[in-house]
Design a protein that fits this description.
Number of strands of chain A: 8
Number of strands of chain B: 11
Number of helices of chain B: 15
Largest sheet of chain B: 8 strands, parallel, barrel
Number of helices of chain A: 9
Radius of gyration of chain B: 20 Å
Largest sheet of chain A: 8 strands, mixed
Low-confidence stretches of chain A: none
Radius of gyration of chain A: 17 Å
Helix content of chain A: 25-40%
Order of helices and strands of chain B: EHHEHEHEHHEEEHEHEHHHHHEHEH
Distance between the termini of chain B: 13 Å
Order of helices and strands of chain A: EEEHEHEHEHHHEHEHH
Strand order of the largest sheet of chain B: 1-2-3-4-7-8-9-11
Oligomer: heterodimer
Mean pLDDT of chain B: 96
Chain lengths: 266, 389
């Protein structure tokens, strides 16, 4: 397992923080609303088999907030630029939550450089029947308690006081999340029309007790994306990489193994 | 000194016991608690109170905008200002304020304000606000774009009002091939614009600019803050190269007057505390959604959270100067003292608050109008101005 090395690279005029490490096929991990800090540990565990890349989205973490960042579409085009600029090919994109939504927006535009998609608790679709959990209404401790089923684990996470720097990054990430996802709330009204364009193998992973985007949201993605697989992780909330990392890693590994001999989805 | 009677129109009949399971009256208390019979009676009562303001000698009456809350059942001040337009003859009618970022089409505001200005033959005072944080949860507009939308909407409205003929507007948030509003405003170049604020350097820099010279109103703040921000505005005018007129400054504060200090405190206590702790109170996530205030200003918030959203007492608020409560003499003395220190032209008194019932509201209005206002007017008239207009 390798530590991810940090680098600052300018992409589309935005100084972007990129963490990179390991060797093997390229795996691009797109973090969620909480920023890259809660995915880095899990991403490092994937470096045994992959060259893992974990950027801070524009506006998040240690990346700059570029003047052009107004919505999710801007984030998607940024990543298309990133893939091209870093000359990445046959990339396995793994996206959590907001990162999953960005992955969807990238993929409906072009799967040219993409080998496969893993979508974990992904935002992006609306549902007329199921209400989302409104994270903007939950105070920070309540967010952790609502996103994680195992309350002992939740309390353990809450017992760690953030440093001043971490607290500052948390506010920055909150602002950036609002920029992309406040309205419409965590979805793109036009996305469902074009999910049929996703022509790479897609694994959808969902916690059975996701209170942010309940399971029906995962089921809807599964219906819309041709040839996709949906795996539900029991005893798991919105953050499989935090709550069930071993199970989640096993799903990712076995899925990506299965794509080795595949081209586009049937 | 000019006196404006300001109203929030709360749903004073809220079943506070039943509603206490809900964390806040903002958005999260369902409208099943609104009884149209009671609501209709409240609208009648409150509009009558404002109309009485003219009879009692106020220079102006003012209405306000809040959505999805028992705190104020006046989501459209356009409606209430219109209701008052034909029933009053001489008072100014101030809309404090229209929440610009919440509108999809700011030009509808330009039209509505222009209509009222024409209907009243120039008695309208236009107020522009961003809306408080909760409105962004209620309305779904992105708080990250609150400042951008406010400024673009403002510029668009000013263009619609002041550039005659058919123009166009292509901005980041609003796009119009044609801008040609009928009617144009009655007042020239447009109704006076007032900017209510809880204290913001950026707002002051913008409002005091020589191109605008908008009246700045410090609202619902401790008197130390009122002093600080009114001074900041005056200093900003100096930086722009001109001397601030008293006419550019105002203070909005809830006031209760009764026969003696003791009676006033006793009568106001439960209603004022309901106003603050049951109607106004909301969690910090609603008051300050991400992007509403700068990242910098959010840094101190977590530490002072309890102060910002915690419960208050009548006594504390009187001490801080957030609530003026007492006999006519006490109220007059307090206001005179603050006026002499700060020399604002506009005093906006909110004489109904929270669950304060009709009889106490009207008693307070009468005492204020008869025992306080005239004395303050004569003090102001006989005190030389700090500077010529």
């Amino acid at each position: 397992m390798a530590v991810l090395a940090k680098d600052m690279i300018e992409i589309a005029g935005c100084k972007t923080c990129i963490r990179r490490g390991g060797s093997g096929p390229t795996l691009l991990y797109l973090h969620g609303a909480g920023g890259s800090s809660n995915v880095v540990g899990f991403a490092e565990s994937l470096t045994d088999k992959f060259e893992v890349i974990v950027p801070d989205h524009p506006g998040f973490g240690e990346s700059d907030l570029p003047a052009w960042l107004d919505n999710i579409h801007d984030a998607a085009y940024f990543y298309l630029d990133l893939l091209k600029q870093l000359n990445l090919r046959d990339v396995h994109i793994v996206g959590s939550s907001l990162g999953g939504w960005i992955a969807l927006e990238i993929a409906v535009r072009s799967t040219n450089r993409i080998k496969s998609l893993v979508l974990s608790g992904a935002a992006g679709l609306n549902s007329k029947d199921t209400r989302r959990g409104d994270i903007f209404m939950w105070e920070p401790p309540q967010r952790i308690r609502n996103m994680i089923v195992d309350q002992t684990l939740a309390e353990k996470i809450l017992s760690v006081k953030p440093t001043e720097e971490q607290a500052a990054i948390a506010v920055k990430n909150e602002f950036a999340t609002a920029r992309l996802a406040w309205e419409p709330r965590f979805y793109d009204p036009n996305l469902h029309k074009w999910l049929h364009r996703i022509d790479v193998p897609t694994q959808i992973v969902w916690g059975d007790n996701d209170k942010v985007f309940p399971l029906p949201f995962g089921e809807a993605l599964h219906r819309h994306i041709p040839g996709s697989t949906l795996t539900v992780i029991p005893k798991c909330g919105h953050l499989p990489h935090v709550e069930q990392p071993d199970r989640y890693k096993a799903i990712i590994n076995s899925f990506i193994d299965s794509t080795a001999s595949k081209g586009a989805a049937a | 000194m000019k006196f404006t009677l300001f109203h929030l129109m709360p749903y004073a009949d809220l079943d506070l016991d039943a509603a206490k399971d809900y964390p806040t009256s903002w958005l999260q208390t369902p409208n099943t608690f609104y009884d149209p019979e009671k609501g209709a009676a409240l609208y009648d009562r409150y509009l009558t109170e404002l109309e009485r303001g003219e009879e009692l000698g106020f220079d102006g009456i003012a209405v306000n905008e809040h959505h999805s809350t028992a705190y104020g059942i006046m989501p459209s001040p356009i409606v209430t200002a219109s209701a008052l337009a034909r029933r009053t003859k001489n008072v100014t009618i101030a809309i404090l304020g229209s929440a610009l970022p919440l509108r999809g089409h700011p030009l509808t505001l330009a039209e509505e304000h222009a209509m009222i200005d024409n209907i009243t033959k120039g008695r309208l005072i236009t107020g522009f606000v961003r809306g408080i944080g909760a409105e962004y949860h209620v309305w779904g507009v992105n708080p990250v774009f609150s400042h951008e939308r406010f400024h673009e909407a403002h510029d668009l409205i000013i263009q619609a009002w002041t550039e005659p003929g058919i123009t166009s507007w292509h901005g980041k948030h609003y796009n119009h091939e044609y801008v040609n509003i009928w009617p144009r405003p009655y007042q020239k170049p447009h109704p006076p614009i007032w900017i209510p604020s809880q204290g913001s350097r950026e707002t002051i820099e913008w409002a005091a600019h020589p191109k605008r010279k908008y009246v700045y109103l410090q609202t619902f703040s401790p008197t130390k803050s009122v002093q600080k921000y009114l001074k900041m505005y005056r200093d900003q005018c100096e930086q722009y190269g001109y001397t601030c007129s008293d006419k550019q400054l105002g203070w909005a504060v809830p006031i209760y007057v009764a026969e003696t200090d003791e009676i006033a405190r006793k009568e106001a206590k439960v209603h004022y505390e309901n106003f603050r702790n049951r109607f106004l109170k909301m969690p910090i996530e609603m008051l300050l959604p991400p992007g509403y205030s700068s990242i910098e200003s959010m840094k101190g918030v977590a530490a002072t959270k309890a102060q910002i959203v915690g419960d208050v007492t009548l006594e504390l608020c009187i001490e801080l100067g957030m609530f003026i409560c007492g006999s006519p003499e006490t109220v007059r003395q307090t206001l005179e003292h603050h006026w002499k220190t700060m020399r604002f032209e506009h005093l906006l008194s909110m004489l109904q608050f929270g669950t304060l019932p009709s009889d106490l509201t009207n008693k307070s209005m009468d005492l204020f109008a008869k025992e306080v206002m005239p004395k303050l007017r004569s003090v102001a008239a006989s005190t030389p101005a700090l500077a010529a207009e």
